Amino acid sequence: MYLNKSQITELLPHREPMLLIDELINIKKLHSGTAIVNVKKDSFFVQGHFPGQPVMPGVLIVEAFGQAAAALTASGIEKKEYDNKLVFLMGVDKARFRNPVIPDCRLELNIEAIRSHGRVWKYKGEAFVDGKKMADAQWSATIVDRK
Question: Could you tell me the residue ranges of all domains in the chain?
Answer without folding.
Answer: 5-145
